[in-house]
Write a structure and sequence with these properties.
Helix 7 packs antiparallel against helix 10. This protein starts with a strand and ends with a strand. The longest helix is centred in the middle third of the chain and has 21 residues, at about 130-150. By secondary structure, the chain is of the alpha/beta class. Strand 12 and strand 13 (about 300-305) form a beta hairpin. It is elongated, with a radius of gyration of 25 Å. Helix content is about 30%, strand content about 20%. It contains 11 helices and 15 strands. It has helices at about 20-25, 30-40, 100-110, 130-150, 160-175, 185-190, 190-200, 240, 250-265, 310-325, 335-345; strands spanning about 5, 10-15, 50-55, 60-65, 85-90, 125-130, 175-180, 205-210, 220-225, 225-230, 270-280, 290-295, 300-305, 330, 365.
Length: about 375
Amino acid sequence: MTVQLKTNAAAIAITVVDRSAFQTLAPTQPTPTRHWLSALGFVGAPDSFALVPGPDGKLGQVFAGIHHIADPFALAALPQALPEGRYRLSTNEGLTLQAEAAALSWELGAYQFDLYKPRRRAPAELCLAPSADAQRGLAFATAMAATRDLVNTPAEHMGPEELAQAAQMIAKQHGAKFKQIVGEDLLKQNFPAIHAVGRASTRAPRLIELNWGAADAPLLCIVGKGVCFDTGGLDIKGADGMRQMKKDMGGAANALGLAALVMAFKLPLRLQVLIPAVENSIAGNAYRPGDVIKTRKGLHIEIGNTDAEGRVVLSDALAYASEGKPELIIDLATLTGAARVALGAQLPARSCRRCSASISTAPATWST
């Protein structure tokens, strides 16, 4: 963690401003500081900062521009850009940043995926006064960093088994029950669609399940698509389309991150997490276009395109989720490339329907 929940008067002060606050604050600054900030062109713009020297020539103060005091990325530009050392938020002047936003944004800015390539430098540290809000921000940051790590890890080291190990670790951290149904046992326990998609891989498909919370609490079911790599199957993707398919388990990663937060905050819920974890590969026993597959619900679906594997594995998981009659099902999935064509790379596609309709309204034939 680059955020330390402790006071440190010796840490370098960061004065947080927006454009309006800076216009008010600037005239009150010592003349050398005003001239220095003017020479740097600092006006309090979001994600900008200015290093101000002290009388001894060393770094004495930092001015940081933000968009809003509750912005979850308010300080994200600073940890990798400021000189190494310890910093604190000024309490004497400038805006008072929300502690949750401060902790979260600093940790998000400090994040790097360094499993294979070490950091060039350590990020700057932020000292915050201990508070429940700061703890909450750190909890969000921890879950988000873990989610990013899962998505960023290449498929070679993040297959169905490794994804199950990550889920098991989270379960152990929070006292949840963990189980998985692997390989041919999927057929024995009536998860034929999950098995069909994952059977061609040398890495066995599986259904991962976590359960947590009091038996009499409202049931929340989180379902995450765990396609650890998607070749497109026999309807093979082109090279450009396949390049980022390690991220096709992003729904599962986000499901685990959300579940970790539910358990960390000890929400009054009964939690069930379901992840159909597969690799959509090509082999002699791969499922084919035109195949008709029976699902857990008993519906038969015709495969129009084997690159529609996500909705196939989710059909079994969602049917199983519905059997427990939860108050709410949250389904997280990287579905589908057509959404990016329609909305671009920055806007997520969302759909919502009542739990009772999650499976019963699904079409009998799916294709891309």
